[in-house]
Specification:
Layout: H1 2-32, H2 57-69, H3 92-100, E1 103-106, E2 115-118, H4 132-138, H5 150-153, H6 158-166, E3 182-183, E4 191-192, H7 213-228, H8 232-265
Antiparallel strand pairs: 1-2, 3-4
Length: about 280
């Protein structure tokens, strides 16, 4: 029986090693056929990347300018409302004025008809297209993605978006692009339907900041980080408070444990049997 048990152990071990080896071989073969052209975005020194660093709210404001004047022509932000800008990048009055610039389809009214009205703070950013089919028809069959959570939706986050915006170049020899496509090594496969959206002085910042291509990309990436995770600053402030509170409670807990509970835990209880005459 002991020999049989040992044999079973060897058999199970052999099966495990064989299964692991087969899985490793399949993984290696799968990776070997992935010959897509692509570059890994390097990590950049963002001002908000530190554990206790907050977002640059002036950059968020400029990033909204870039989105509004460049990106909003094709990309929607259906999960961001005008009220979200208040206290972050714009004042209440400024946000109301921005919302009023848009005509929002609403209704039905008392007669059952749909109508258009000026935007309000409670409205979400309007989509540039009435439906996905119209978006695809206007972009050679490719629907521009919504940018609300783009900084979290792509591997590399804002680093990926920044490098993608600045990474357009001529296609290398042997790479064929379809009509309407452009080459960008940071895009999986290298082919991207979006034309280069940014270049120097494409817009003029209201605060006078030089609108270089790198500055435009940096600001819109910061804006996308905020739209994807608007609670970033609040989460970091909470972390500071938690660290401060635990910094006080941990020494107190250690003192009580060391000088109070240690006496009780080390106490030895001896039961002496009662003797009967």
């Amino acid at each position: 029986m002991a020999a049989l048990g040992l044999g079973k152990k060897f058999a199970l071990a052999a099966i495990g090693v064989g299964t692991g080896g087969a899985a490793g071989l399949l993984y290696a073969l799968d990776e070997s056929v992935k010959a897509d052209i692509g570059l890994h975005p390097t990590k950049l020194p963002w001002s908000h990347s530190g554990l206790f660093d907050s977002l640059d709210h002036q950059s968020i404001r400029r990033g909204y300018e870039v989105y509004k004047q460049v990106c909003a022509a094709c990309h929607s932000m259906k999960f961001v409302a005008f009220r979200n800008l208040v206290g972050v990048s714009h004042t209440m009055e400024e946000a109301k004025a921005i919302a009023a610039e848009f005509n929002i389809r609403d209704g039905p009214n008392d007669k059952g008809d749909m109508f258009e009205r000026p935007g309000k703070l409670s409205d979400y950013f309007p989509s540039p297209y009435p439906n996905p089919e119209a978006a695809a028809a206007a972009n050679n069959g490719a629907i521009p993605p919504d940018l609300s959570f783009m900084a979290l939706a792509r591997h590399g986050g804002e680093n990926y978006v920044y490098h993608l915006l600045n990474g357009y170049c001529d296609a290398p020899a042997g790479v064929e692009l379809r009509e309407g496509q452009h080459f960008n090594p940071y895009m999986q496969g290298g082919a991207i339907s979006m034309a280069p959206p940014l270049y120097n002085e494409i817009i003029e910042y209201e605060d006078g900041t030089p609108a270089t291509q790198s500055q435009l990309a940096k600001d819109v990436c910061t804006f996308l980080v905020w739209t994807a995770s608007p609670e970033t600053d609040a989460r970091k402030r909470l972390a500071i408070k938690v660290i401060f509170i635990f910094g006080i409670l941990i020494p107190i807990s250690w003192y009580i444990k060391r000088h109070k509970w240690s006496v009780l835990k080390s106490r030895k209880i001896v039961y002496t049997p009662k003797k009967y005459d």
